[in-house]
């Protein structure tokens, strides 16, 4: 899913957001990641600017985020959104197109309540992955799958991501 970085990280009100069944290919995953990164926005308004546009964006972001999770919970048979939040693995994916040629993918750890965080830098060996943005969709997708395999936490799915 696309993000808006504007005084914090927000679900994009207008960008790319998708969930998929387990039978998609690494190429499909890579294409989705590329599209989400290309649609993400990094905004730095001038100091002292009017906060009203950011506040409006946050409201739209929250509405779209909740609708996305409602759809995901309904599609995959979760009892409710809260149950789906406790059962998913997350990656932190970034690409700074003006300065970095590589996509950085960080595996996460989750808490009992479903919150996700990246590993501290002194414990992240084998949990941080890089792949060139110019790589094929399949290569990006394979790296995403490798990163998912390194996620940990009490809510972690016991099923392989792709059987």
In angstroms, what is the radius of gyration?
16 Å
* Amino- and carboxy-terminal Cα gap: 23 Å
Per CATH, the superfamily is NMB0488-like
Helix count, per DSSP? 4
**CATH level 3 topology:** NMB0488-like fold
**Largest sheet report:** 4 strands, antiparallel
Number of domains: 1
Q: In terms of per-residue confidence, which ranges show pLDDT below 50 for 5 or more consecutive residues? A: 158-163
Helix/strand/pairing class, anyone? alpha+beta
Work out the number of β strands: 7
Protein name: CdiI family contact-dependent growth inhibition immunity protein
Organism: Acetobacter sicerae
InterPro entries: CdiI_Proteobact, Cdil-like_sf
Pfam families: CdiI
